[in-house]
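[PROTEIN RECORD]
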Amino acid sequence: MSKQVRVSAFSVLLAILLLASCASEPQPLSGPSPDETVEASPSLEESPAPPASEETALLSPDQPVPPEPSHAVYLPPVTLPVSIYGFMLSYTSRFVYEGRVYVISSWRGSFYNDDESLKQLIGEWLGTLDGNMEDWPAEFTGNAIGDLYSVKGYRNDFRLCVYVEYADEDGTNRYSLAFYEHLNDIGLTAGADLYGDRLHLRERWSALKYQTLSNRKGEAEGLSSAVYHDLGISDVVISAFIDTLYAAPFEFYKAPGKESSEEEVIAYEAFIRERERMESAYLIFYMNDGMDFYLQFYEDGLVQYRCPEMGLNEDITGGYGMLFVRMSGESFDTVNNVCFY
C-alpha cells in the first residue's frame, strides 16, 4: 500500500543523493565558506560523548525513563532501524543532533516538483550528515545525507531540515529539502504541547481540507481517486476546532516490546485492527509558511498527528507506538459530520 510507494520514492531519491555526495562535497547554502566548513563542522572525535545515562536511554527503548509527573504520556527514545545482514528493515530516515534523534516528516524539493519558495525556511547551518550509522548514537550519525540547518520559525529541539543540491542526468540543477522532527524521549500532556508550542497552528494555519481514508490510499497508489475536499465550514468553527485540539489530552498506545506479556500484545493488536476497521479521514492543515501536516481523524474522537512521509501504519514517534489526542465537543462534531456524513 502507501508504504511501498513511499519506500520506492525514498530509494530513488536516496540513490540520487548518494551519487551526488560522491561527485562533490555538499556546500552549505549559507554560513561558512567551503574552506571554513571543515573547521566549523563538529567532528565525531571532537564531539563529547553523551552521558552514559543518555546513551543507555537511546539504546534501550524497552526501558524508557519514566515521564515527569506533569506529563500525561512519555514517548520512548528512538534507536537505529533494525537491519539483518546489512539490509535495512526500516527505511525511515533519522539522525542524531545534540543527543536528540530526529525522524523524517516531510521530503520536499525538485523530486516532488516543488518550487524554490520553501528555501526561505532554511535557517542557520549546523553541520553535515554523511550517512554514517556505524558510530550511532554519536553526534551527526544516522542514515540521512546532506547539510543540516535549523528551520526558521521553529524550535531546534523540534524541527530541523537537511538540504542537498544535485544535478540530474541532463545536467539540470535540482534540490532536496527534507524536514525532520524530534518527537521521542519527551513528555506531552495536552495538544498545545505539540500543535501550539511546536507547530504554532493557531497563528499559522491558512487552509484546511480533508480526504477520506479510501482517497488517501488512492493517492498513495497514484490513482485519480485522491481528492482533497473543502470542509465548507467557517474560520470561526475551524478556530474553535483548533482550540479544542489544543486542550485535548494526549494518549499514547505503546507498541509491545520484549518485556510485554501475551495479554499486552493481544490488546495492542486488537487496538490496531479496530483502527483499521473504523471510519477515518485525513485533515490537511496548510500553513502560511509553506508547510503542511495531516491529522488522521477517527469517528470515536481519537486524532493522530501524521506527516507526509509516514505510511498509514507508521508514526512519527519512531515506531514505538501510536500518539493521539482525544477530542469531543461541538466543533469536533461539526468536522466529524462533514467528513463522514
In short: The longest helix spans residues 2-23. The CA atoms of residues 294 and 306 lie 5 Å apart. The longest strand covers residues 100-109. Residues 1-12, 15-67, 83-89 have pLDDT under 50 and may be disordered.
